[in-house]
Amino acid sequence: MGRFIEGSDRRERLLLPDCIDDYVIADSPVRVVDMFVDELDLSELGFGAAAATGRPNYHPATMLKLYIYGYLNQVQSSRRLEREAGRNVECMWLTGKLAPDFKTIADFRRNHGAAIQAACRRFVLVCRNLGLIAGGTVAVDGSRLRAVNARDRNFTPVTIRHRMEQVDASIQRYLGMLDTADRQEGEAAEWRTARLTTTRLDALRRQMRDLEAMEQAVAATPDRQISLSDPDARAMASAGGGTGLVGYNLQAAGDADTHIVVAHEVINLGHDRTSLASMGKQARDATGADTLIVLADRGYFSGPEVLACEKDGVVAICPKPLTQAPRPRGASASRTSSTSRTLIPIAAPPAKP
Fold first, then answer.
1. Where is this region: Disordered (predicted)?
2. Of 155, 167, 216, 333, whose CB is crowded by the most CB atoms within 10 A?
């Protein structure tokens, strides 16, 4: 076949097996993760101690290392983390060849949410002490996260009304089919009428009654929305028509120089207008800056939020939303459109002395 580099036989026996540490390079990020977690006081952060009875649990340090590894490598699913723990050499080195199942990984993430957030804050503090975070300017933005809740299992007054209209149309269509069957003769017509009456039509009527009960339940909720699979998830619209999702809104503030996320928060609102002051205060506390400049897009524009930022020592720079002013009679379209595209910052950084 020519001159090619040939590998060793996978069935060859080794007298001295290779050390797994040799497969992890010296400047691998997993070595930083291992050192960082080993230096943490996990009990102080809120991680639970070992159970006195029953089957021994995995050490919180091992689970936290696996969780951080998934964050660094964009592996969010617990099932994918389980596969990585059994086939990835760096992950094997990090966990000591332990491979927890996906249910254990998911339970650890759900039961130790506050402790994981405390560990993230400790990491930001370490980065600040090392001089990796300047602390002068941060950028805030939101990301939509899809929840484990289908759109059909999310109910709002608008969706309930649309589904009722669809059910009404289906009932009218089946009633028309019954009229057509009544005008026919023979046993086939009788069987078809009975099948339509006892199955499809009754199922549609039951669905209509369920929607009416759900409509009353939605009206009794504070935000007039119910999600069956994930109760905390909410419907959120997106830029494309009809492409909304049911999920969460992740708010993140990143340092403008190093792009390190210094603060984050998960909300279930479909907009960002009420998150500017909260994210600015969290970012200022995390960076330790006396005065912090926050950059945001027009989705964060809100007068009360800007005032709250000024009270907390945060300077918010954000463009005003694009609004279409009333066009005077006889005015040209180009002049009106140019006025509507003007961007005005709501605040400016203080001038240096």
1. 322-353
2. 155
